[in-house]
Inverse folding.
C-alpha cells in the first residue's frame, strides 16, 4: 500500500487504501513514456520494456528499410518506424504536446522552432520528457517482449529477450500495452497483381524520393502520409498517379501546381504487360505501386487464450478502447484510437489506467463493461460504420478525452486546443501545401502560450 502522490491528493476521498502494483509497460514511445510517468505518479512500480536502444518509438527516424519492401514476408527483420526523411508534424506543436509538458521551441533558439517541426524535434521533445520525469531509469532498453500470458492468481508472465539473447520470465500484476500501430503494413487488394512485373512497396519503407527519379509511380491512399509522399515523389518522378477510394469512380484530375501528378479512383486491375487500369478506365504503364494504405494492429507477443482478438482492425472487446473487460484493469492498451491527437489522449488513458490499478478509481462490473462494448459495436453497425473504423475517433476524440479526464479527476482538454485542432484541420483540407507555414489562429496561439506559462514555470517542481 502506498500514500497517494501529492499531485493527485486533492481528488481523493479521505483514507482510501491505495495499492502499488508491479506493472510492465511494453514500449517506450509517446504512449509508453507517459504511461510510465502516470503509473509512477500513482505509486506503482514500473518497468518499461523497450526493444530499441532509446525512447521515442515512431519518432526514431532510421534510413534503414525492411528487406521485403511491401512487408508481407513474415520472416523479414522488422524496422519499427515508418517516418520519411522530410516528415514534418501534421499537428501544430501547441496541440500535439502532452497537456502539462508543452511542446514549445527552446528559448536558446536551437533545434527546429517551427510550429510544425520536423521529426527530429519531436524526438528531442520526447527525450526531454523522459529526462525530466526520470523515465530513462524505468526503461530496460534492447529488451523485446516475446510473450505475455496469464498465470495463476490473475497475474501476467512476461517473457522478454535482452540484447545478450538472455530470455527472462517475470511475473507482473498488470501489463500496459504501448507497442504502437504503425509498423505492420496493410496492403491494397489489386486483381492481377501477382503477374504484374513492377515493383511494389508500402509507405512503411518509404524514406526519400531519390529512388523514384524518372519513374512512373502509382501511389494508393489518401491519408496524411499519402498527401506528403506524393508531393515528395512528384519532385523527381516522371509521372505520379494517386489512386484513392475516397474519390468518385469517374475522377481524373491534374493535381494543382504539378504538371506530372494526377488523381484517379482505385485501381481496377494490374496486368503482366506492366499496365495498370483504374476504375475510370484510364490505363498507365507503371514502374512502381506504392501502398500508402495504412497499418494493422499487431500484438504478436500477446496470448490471451482468444479473449482479445484483432479482427479487421478492431481490437476487442475493449471497454473504452482500453480494457478487455475480462482482464480489467490488469491488462490495458494505450494509444489505439486514430484520427486523434495522440499524446494528450494517451496521457489521459494512462491516468485512468493508473487510478484503476491503484484502486483510486473503480470500473463498472465485467458484465456492465461488456454491455457497454456491445452497445458501442451495435451503434457503429447501425450507423453503417465499417468494423475497421472501430478505433477511428475523428468525430468524438475530445469528448472521449474529456470523459477520461472526468473519470480520473484531471482537467479536460483545453478549449483553445480543441479550437486550434479544428482550425488546423480545415486549413489542411483547404491548403495541404501551405497549412504548415501559413495560419490565422493567432488568438488561439496566444491563449495556448498563456496556458503554457504555468506548466513551464512549474516544470522544475513537477520533475519526477
Ligand atoms: P510508437 O511510437 O510506435 O512506440 C511503440 C514502442 O514500442 C516502440 O519504441 C517499439 O520499439 C516498442 N515495441 C514494440 N513492440 C515491442 C516489443 N515486443 N517489445 C518491446 N518493445 C516493443 N502523431 C502526432 O501527434 N503528430 C504527427 O504529426 C504525427 N505524424 C505521424 C506520421 C507518421 C508517418 C506516423 C506513422 C505516425 C504519426 N503520428 C503523429 C502518430 C504517432 O504514431 C504518435 O505520435 C505516437 O508516436 C504513437 O506512440 P506509441 O507509443 O503509441 O507508438
Amino acid at each position: 500500500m502506498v500514500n497517494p502522490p501529492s499531485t493527485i491528493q486533492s481528488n481523493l476521498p479521505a483514507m482510501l487504501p491505495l495499492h502499488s502494483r508491479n506493472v510492465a509497460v511494453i514500449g517506450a514511445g509517446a504512449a509508453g513514456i507517459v504511461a510510465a510517468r502516470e503509473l509512477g505518479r500513482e505509486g506503482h512500480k514500473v518497468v518499461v520494456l523497450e526493444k530499441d536502444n532509446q525512447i521515442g518509438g515512431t519518432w526514431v527516424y532510421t534510413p534503414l528499410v525492411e528487406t521485403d519492401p511491401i512487408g508481407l514476408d513474415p520472416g523479414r527483420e522488422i524496422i519499427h518506424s515508418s517516418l520519411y526523411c522530410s516528415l514534418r508534424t501534421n499537428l501544430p506543436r501547441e496541440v500535439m504536446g502532452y497537456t502539462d509538458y508543452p511542446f514549445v521551441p527552446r528559448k536558446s533558439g536551437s533545434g527546429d522552432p517551427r510550429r510544425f517541426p520536423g521529426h527530429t524535434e519531436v524526438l528531442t521533445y520526447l527525450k526531454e520528457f523522459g529526462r525530466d520525469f526520470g523515465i530513462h531509469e524505468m526503461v530496460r532498453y534492447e529488451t523485446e517482449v516475446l510473450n505475455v500470458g496469464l498465470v495463476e492468481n490473475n497475474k501476467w508472465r512476461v517473457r522478454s529477450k535482452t540484447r545478450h539473447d538472455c530470455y527472462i520470465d517475470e511475473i507482473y500484476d498488470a501489463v500496459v500495452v504501448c507497442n504502437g500501430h504503425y509498423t505492420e503494413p496493410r496492403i491494397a487488394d489489386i486483381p492481377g497483381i501477382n503477374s504484374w512485373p513492377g515493383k511494389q512497396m508500402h509507405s512503411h519503407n518509404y524514406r526519400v524520393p531519390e529512388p523514384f527519379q524518372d519513374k512512373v509511380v502509382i501511389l494508393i491512399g489518401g491519408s496524411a502520409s499519402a498527401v506528403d509522399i506524393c508531393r515528395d515523389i512528384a519532385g523527381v518522378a516522371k509521372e505520379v498517379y494517386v489512386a484513392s477510394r475516397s474519390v468518385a469512380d469517374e475522377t481524373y484530375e491534374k493535381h494543382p501546381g504539378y504538371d506530372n501528378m494526377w488523381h484517379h479512383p482505385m485501381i481496377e486491375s494490374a496486368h503482366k504487360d506492366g499496365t495498370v487500369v483504374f476504375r475510370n478506365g484510364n490505363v498507365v504503364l507503371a514502374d512502381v505501386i506504392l501502398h500508402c494504405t495504412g497499418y494493422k494492429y499487431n500484438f504478436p507477443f500477446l496470448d490471451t487464450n482468444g479473449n482479445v482478438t484483432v479482427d479487421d482492425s478492431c481490437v476487442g472487446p475493449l471497454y473504452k478502447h482500453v480494457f478487455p473487460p475480462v482482464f480489467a484493469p490488469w491488462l490495458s492498451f494505450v494509444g489505439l484510437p486514430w484520427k486523434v491527437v495522440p499524446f494528450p489522449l494517451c496521457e489521459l488513458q494512462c491516468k485512468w489506467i493508473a487510478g484503476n490499478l491503484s484502486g483510486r478509481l473503480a470500473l463498472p462490473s465485467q458484465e456492465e463493461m461488456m454491455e457497454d462494448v456491445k452497445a458501442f459495436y451495435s451503434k457503429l453497425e447501425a450507423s453503417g460504420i465499417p468494423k475497421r473504423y472501430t478505433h477511428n475517433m475523428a468525430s468524438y476524440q475530445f469528448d472521449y478525452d474529456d470523459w477520461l479526464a472526468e473519470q480520473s479527476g484531471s482537467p479536460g482538454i483545453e478549449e483553445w486546443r480543441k479550437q486550434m485542432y479544428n482550425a488546423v484541420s480545415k486549413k489542411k483540407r483547404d491548403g495541404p501545401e501551405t497549412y504548415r507555414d501559413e495560419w490565422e489562429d493567432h488568438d488561439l496561439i496566444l491563449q495556448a502560450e498563456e496556458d503554457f506559462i504555468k506548466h513551464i514555470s512549474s516544470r522544475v517542481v513537477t520533475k519526477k
About this structure: The pocket of flavin-adenine dinucleotide is lined by residues 26-32, 49-52, 57-59, 80, 82-83, 87, 89-91, 96, 144-145, 178-180, 182, 225, 301, 335, 342-343 (CB under 6 Å). The longest helix spans residues 342-358. Residues 1-15, 460-464 have pLDDT under 50 and may be disordered.
